[in-house]
Amino acid sequence: MSRISKSLFGAGPIASTAVATVFAFSSIPARADWTDKAFPVKTHDFGTVAVASKTEFSFPIVNTTGSEMHIREVRTSCGCTTPTLSSNYIPAGGQGSLLARFNTPTFRGKKGATLTVVIDKPVYTEVLLKVNGYIRSDMVFHPGSVEFGTVQQGEAESGSTKVFYAGRSDWQVVDVRANQPWLIPTFQQLERGAGKATYELTVQVREDAPEGFFQDEVIVQTNDRSMPRIPLQVSGNVVTALTVSPQSIALGSLRSGQEVSQRLVLKGREPFAIKSIECAGWDVQFENTSDEKKVHIVNLKLKPNTAQGPQRASLVITTNGDEAMTAKAILTADVQGEHVATAN
């Protein structure tokens, strides 16, 4: 054994601890490297938001160290932002998150905060995350977000909030947009006068919204040149025990009485049998069996009987049994008179 080895290993418990620490550090990539992978997003700009709007961002945390990660604490440099950890412990290979909530009810103007994440396992380090944004004082959402809770797939649900504005006499909402096709926002002015305006914003979750949790934004467009776009948070959870694919059936243009074919795939969490498939104004034919299984592939024959003109109808699937399930798909078509001929 070399002189260095003798002096190190022969020094007792203190030397052994030092060796273990050296090996622990050597098994983890350099700090700049592993924290960049563990915190792939380190900054977020909330943009311009309204007073009392629910404004949050979740920083992802990925434990790539090969050992359990323990976050001792998170400090914030400003009361304008409240940090919340999903968990202080993240197992090797696991994921967590740090939720940064912008405190829009109590702060105004341009604000920013540095969130210091203190990690003491597997090695001590501090990671800095930053958020900033502008909370405009002349515009208030009440409530601060549209939260749907649980939404049954196949059923349209609507939620609303109000916008209160105080300032310019000519200020107005000119448009409301969503970046998901199954979120339908609308607005209407309720009051106006003496430099004040009140609007109601309504958001509909369409019947064909995909299953699962969603958290999105609706953008309120105003005629304010300096800060025209204001986000409104929209969230919910679309659930179903029976899924239908495709969720939307577009048949295009067809003649009254013309028959078209459509394949459906029905999936359940438990085996089931199909009781009926119906659509108002349409004749629906399919080969039904009493077989119970988790997946059914159904070949439909669809023919408009009383349906005329532009159509947007619910195709309703019902299962057999004491605990019958119902699912819906949306059927769209333009049913023309007999003289119109179009290819399917």
Summarize, please.
The protein is 8% helix and 60% strand.
Q: Which helices and strands occur, and which strands form pairs?
A:
Blueprint: H1 3-9, H2 13-26, H3 31-38, E1 43-51, E2 55-62, E3 69-76, E4 81-85, E5 89-90, E6 95-102, E7 109-121, E8 125-142, E9 145-152, E10 157-166, E11 173-178, E12 183-193, E13 196-205, E14 212-222, E15 229-239, E16 242-245, E17 248-255, E18 260-272, E19 274-278, E20 282-285, E21 293-304, E22 309-319, E23 326-336
Parallel strand pairs: 1-8, 9-15, 17-23
Antiparallel strand pairs: 2-6, 3-5, 3-7, 4-6, 7-8, 8-10, 10-13, 11-14, 12-13, 14-15, 16-18, 18-21, 19-22, 20-21, 22-23
Protein name: DUF1573 domain-containing protein
Pfam family, one: DUF1573
Keywords: Signal
